[in-house]
């Protein structure tokens, strides 16, 4: 789908626009791609390696800290309280899960 929505968060994939509570978000390319991937796989635990492979296109295990940094940046932009995330949850030892 070219439009994804989770609560007050709307992604217009083809236009590469992200809107939260009616305001457009300024996302970097990889932040947007990561958010699209998370929204397309809601309530699934996604490993850092899977995210690197599918969002960054790395075939071999790259630096998984890249994923952590981008998740942190995204949380600052889409979470009510980035220190206590409810949308992009950390699943300890496994990866991340988008909860909406």
Could you characterize what this model shows?
This protein has 100 residues and is of the alpha+beta class. The protein has a single domain (29-98), classed as Arc Repressor Mutant, subunit A (Orthogonal Bundle), CATH 1.10.10.10. It is built from 3 helices and 6 strands, in the order E-E-E-E-H-H-H-E-E. It has helices at 29-40, 48-56, 65-78; strands spanning 3-6, 9-12, 17-20, 23-25, 88-91, 95-98. The strands form 2 sheets. Strands 1-2-3-4 form a 4-stranded antiparallel beta sheet, with helices on one face. Strands 5-6 form a two-stranded antiparallel ribbon. Strand 5 and strand 6 (95-98) form a beta hairpin. The chain is globular and about 35 Å long. The protein starts with a strand and ends with a strand.
Q: What is the strand and helix layout of this fold?
A:
Layout: E1 3-6, E2 9-12, E3 17-20, E4 23-25, H1 29-40, H2 48-56, H3 65-78, E5 88-91, E6 95-98
Antiparallel strand pairs: 1-2, 2-3, 3-4, 5-6
Helix pairs in contact: 1-2, 1-3
């Amino acid at each position: 789908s070219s439009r994804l929505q989770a609560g007050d968060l709307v992604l217009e994939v083809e236009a590469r626009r992200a809107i939260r509570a009616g305001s457009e978000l300024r996302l970097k390319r990889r932040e947007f791609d990561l958010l699209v991937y998370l929204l397309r796989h809601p309530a699934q635990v996604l490993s850092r390696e899977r995210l690197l492979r599918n969002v960054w296109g790395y075939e071999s295990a790259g630096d998984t800290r890249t994923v952590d940094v981008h998740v942190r940046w995204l949380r600052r932009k889409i979470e009510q309280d980035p220190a206590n995330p409810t949308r992009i949850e950390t699943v300890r030892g496994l990866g991340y899960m988008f909860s909406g």
